[in-house]
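To the wet lab folks,

You asked to see what we're planning to order before we commit. Fair enough. Below is the target structure as tokens, and below that is the sequence we designed to fit it. If anything looks off to you, flag it before the synthesis order goes out.
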């Protein structure tokens, strides 16, 4: 019942495409995610990568997002960090963003071999145009609900699937591309030792301003390489 309520809440946050246009931009995201255990409860993690826009007028982005995770219990975690995004825009000035964020992750009781996880984040986005260094400030809420479907007895091969809704908390003062979004993720992953490799297809709806309709705007292929559960002194302890 709780899982159904969570899915309903995410559905409310998901933008609804009311326009019939189905033309989308194609992107390729390449990410590396290191995880290092500092002690039994505290972990450093983050993601580093580059996002390629495959269209004629590309906007390619370099991403770095160092973060910390603290495990309160088997099911509760608190997260926090800061993201740095530099976007090269072919037809205009480049964009630099600093994005502090805070999050809470909750794991729900397993159903069959599926464990539903929910992840709530708040992001404070400070964005500069690098030609004028004018800035905008924007606060955004993100709620993701997902699971992984195991394909073998060891659950080393799996299908990750999730939905995510984005809500703008800043009113109409912010004029920022893709200020509100909805995403659907599905992919294929495999764990080997302390590493995991995953490929995801992401379908994203978005809009540029509050007056516009939501449309399916991006089709994204994301490839991720993750190293999990390695203490900072180097001794492997396996997957969480």
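Sequence we intend to order:
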């Amino acid at each position: 019942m709780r899982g159904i309520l969570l899915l309903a809440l995410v559905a409310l946050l998901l933008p609804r495409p009311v326009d019939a246009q189905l033309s989308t931009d194609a992107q390729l995201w390449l990410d590396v995610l290191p995880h290092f255990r500092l002690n039994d409860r505290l972990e450093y993690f983050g993601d580093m990568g580059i996002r390629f826009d495959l269209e004629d007028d590309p906007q390619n982005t370099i991403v770095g997002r160092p973060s910390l995770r603290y495990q309160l219990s088997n099911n509760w975690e608190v997260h926090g960090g800061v993201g740095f995004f530099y976007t090269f825009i072919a037809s205009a000035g480049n964009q630099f963003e600093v994005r502090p964020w805070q999050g809470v992750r909750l794991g729900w009781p397993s159903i069959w071999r599926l464990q539903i996880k929910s992840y709530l984040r708040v992001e404070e986005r400070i964005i500069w145009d690098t030609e004028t260094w004018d800035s905008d400030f924007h606060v955004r809420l993100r709620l993701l609900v997902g699971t992984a479907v195991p394909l073998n007895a060891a659950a080393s091969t799996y299908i990750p699937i999730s939905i995510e809704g984005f809500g703008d908390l800043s009113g109409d003062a912010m004029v920022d591309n893709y200020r509100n979004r909805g995403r659907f993720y599905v992919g294929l992953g495999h764990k080997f030792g302390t590493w995991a490799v995953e490929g995801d297809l992401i379908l994203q709806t978005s809009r540029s301003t509050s007056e516009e309709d939501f449309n399916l705007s991006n089709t994204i292929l994301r490839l991720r390489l993750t190293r999990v559960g390695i203490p900072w002194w180097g001794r492997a302890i396996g997957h969480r």
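Structural context that might help your review: The chain has one domain: 2-16+27-231. The CA atoms of residues 196 and 226 lie 5 Å apart.

Thanks,
Computational group
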